[in-house]
Amino acid sequence: PPKKKLEKQHLDAAEKALQDVTSKASKHDDDPRDHIHTPAAQERSHSWFRAIFPYNSLEEFESAWHLGNYVMDRETGEKSFEEMSIYVRIGMHLLYYGSHQEDMLHWKRSQDMLRNQSVKMGKQYDAPESREHIQPFIESFHLQNTLSELNEPDPNKYNTFNEFFARELKPDARPIAEPKNERVVSSPADCRLTVFPTVDLATKYWIKGFGFSLKELLSSEDLAKKFEGGSINIARLAPQDYHRWHSPVSGTIESITDIPGTYYTVNPQAINEEGTLDVFCENKRSVMIIKRTPTSSPVALVAVGAMLVGSIRYKPGIQKGATVQRGQCLGAFLYGGSTVIVLYPKDEVELDKDLVKNSTGACCETYVKVGWRVGAS
Fold first, then answer.
1. pLDDT single digits (tens) 35-59
2. pTM > 0.85
3. What are 246's strand-pairing partners?
4. Which residues does the annotated region (Disordered) include (predicted)?
5. 3-class DSSP state of 20
């Protein structure tokens, strides 16, 4: 069929599927494991997938489409497969199904759809009725053993789902690696981390979408020049993760700039696919520049929103001129997956070899937690 007709057919199907998933999520007496938190590989997902994908069986579908990601656990050295949720897989379809998919992504309708669904989910999970989704969410992602780490470990005491989603940890829940050594830099989040000594290596091994550049990411040519030849850390927060991010260094906040954008999925399968749009430079994001204490060098933290992320929120007092310590909480994402990108100037940091090896050799994310060592000056 003609190009426009083909694109509209697929956009219609994806829009209907995503609306169906988010609408079912608004029915707070329904178990979210039967819709928005359903793993994409399960039979329950098929009613939505059949509206989009041409396949005849689960086996055929799994062999033809990405349904999850491999992640290395830094503590155990074990590699495991993590299934993606159904709403992420639908968002993936928007990114690279069909030969003209990247053209479709620029359609105002497509961007409006993702924005509207993200705002919709944010409002739904701010409603008091959304408390009914907390316990199924805990069970769906096997979070029972993590509750003791929280400032408020009782799920029944949270007023909304988003309040639980942006839950706070106890002060001692994430010890900072080598706390007296200001040369050490830390992970900004509980996350699936990739690190690269240069941006060129990041685009070779990981960021395959067209259009990625420091100038576009930071929305500033002058800022981009400060990080030319420097290293990059990409910290992806999955929905089940503790969803606050922390400072990887000590220093003074020089600026915070909010950049409007859309709400594409930040799942690795979208980031790694050649020929797709680069979502980091297209998505809504906030850029913080910290003047690092021991070196006076700039460090950039880019908080990137994603599909169904309601908002990016800084903690009170996190503003220009504020002094922050390594490991200090800076802000939180509300519902959805999201990413924090950290940029260091050239020769500022030597990244830990095991993380670089996993990122460039195995082309695999590494699971780390807030405050864990990532490298040192």
1. 445 554 444 555 555 555 555 544 4
2. no
3. 329
4. 1-41
5. helix
d(CA 30, CA 28): 5
Which contacts qualify for 113-116: CB closer than 8 Å, 24 or more apart?
A: 113/11, 113/15, 113/18, 114/262, 114/263, 114/264, 114/307, 115/262, 115/263
| Count of CB atoms situated within 10 Å of the CB of 257 | 14
Dump pLDDT digits (tens) for 186-203. 999 999 999 999 999 988
Cα–Cα distance, 169 to 296 (Å, whole number): 30
Could you tell me how far CA 136 lies from the centroid of its own chain?
Answer: 22
Which residues have CB under 8 Å from 163's CB, separation 6+?
none
Phi-psi region of 20 (alpha: psi -120 to 50; beta: other; left: phi over 0): alpha
Q: What is the DSSP string of 45-83?
A: GHHHHTTT---SSHHHHHHHS--EEEEEETTT--EEEEE
Residues contacting 101, CB < 8 A, separation 6+: 7, 10, 94, 95, 276
Distances (CA, A) of 45 to 32, 95, 260, 294: 12, 19, 32, 51
Q: Which residues are catalytic?
A: 190, 246, 338
Phi-psi group of 275: left, alpha or beta (phi > 0 → left; psi -120 to 50 → alpha; rest → beta): left
Say if CB 32 and CB 133 are below 8 A apart. yes
Taking the CB of residue 252, how many other CB atoms lie within 10 A of it? 15
Per-residue b or e along 44-70, where b marks 16 or more CB atoms closer than 10 Å to that residue's CB: ebbebbeebbebeeeeebeeebbbbbe
Phi-psi region of 46 (alpha: psi -120 to 50; beta: other; left: phi over 0): alpha
* Cα–Cα distance for residue pair 367/350, rounded to 1 Å: 19
- DSSP 8-state secondary structure symbol assigned to residue 106: T
Q: Is 273 exposed, middle or buried (0-12, 13-18, 19+ CB in 10 A)?
A: middle
Q: Which of 25, 140, 146 is nearest to 83 (CA)?
A: 140
Rg (CA), the chain: 20
Neighbours of 262 (CB within 10 A): 21
Distance (Å, whole) CA 15 – CA 375: 42
What would the pLDDT profile of 286-327 be if each residue is shown by its tens digit?
A: 999 999 999 999 999 999 987 655 578 999 999 999 999 999
